[in-house]
Specification:
By secondary structure, the chain is α+β, with helices and mostly antiparallel strands. It is built from 3 helices and 8 strands; from the N terminus they run βαβαβββαβββ. The protein has an 8-stranded mixed beta sheet with strand order 2-3-4-1-5-8-7-6, with helices on one face.
């Protein structure tokens, strides 16, 4: 299983990741704007160019990943949700096991579902206030 840090920003994700890229080197393996997501064109203009997802390899098997919040959708950056632990299990079954086990007694943000970008994904805050993402992509 891969584990990657996931950082949230309030409109500074692109600036932050350009800085991280200047330090780590390499190329982005993903950089999607909010406007590129289904319904993204319905967001306020000021949010459409925010980063929906960005990733930068920072080691042999580690990605630094991140996104901006979308305040109009209720995603407000606050202490505690600016950092997630992103788990990448090797099967859907393991993804479900981890999601169900770790989210017990916590708050589910997104249930495990197939997503438009092709992965099986869900996120939650566990009963201790730790933010988690479970992301399964059969090609990785």
């Amino acid at each position: 299983m891969k584990v990657n840090p996931y950082l949230n920003f309030d409109g500074q994700a692109e600036e932050a990741f350009l800085f991280y890229k200047s330090v780590f080197g390499g190329e982005f393996t993903g950089n999607m704007k909010m406007k590129d997501a289904p319904g993204g064109d319905e967001l306020p203009i000021a949010e459409q160019n925010r980063v929906m997802h960005i990733s930068l390899p920072i080691g042999k098997s580690t990605l630094l990943m991140g996104s901006d919040t979308a305040p109009s959708m209720g995603n407000i950056l606050k202490k505690g949700n600016n950092n997630y632990i992103s788990l990448h299990p090797e099967s859907r079954e393991e993804a479900n096991r981890l999601f169900n086990g770790l989210s017990a007694g916590g708050e589910i943000e997104m249930p495990m579902e197939d997503q438009f970008w092709g992965d099986y994904f869900g996120s939650f805050i566990d009963k201790f206030g730790i933010c988690w993402m479970i992301n399964h992509n059969p090609e990785y």
